[in-house]
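Input.
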Amino acid sequence: TGKAIGLGYVRIQGVDAAFLASGNWELEVASERVPAHATLDSLYDPKGLRVKA
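Output.
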């Protein structure tokens, strides 16, 4: 599937997981709009499977 090309952080009062799930998100990359996915999970190793001591 797709690859991560960026990471953003937005803090807006009242935005929750249901709001993120209900939206259609896009990014503009090189003057072209491409579909994007919003998540509250960690973007790298969200289950902690690669954690090393």
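The chain has one domain: 1-40.
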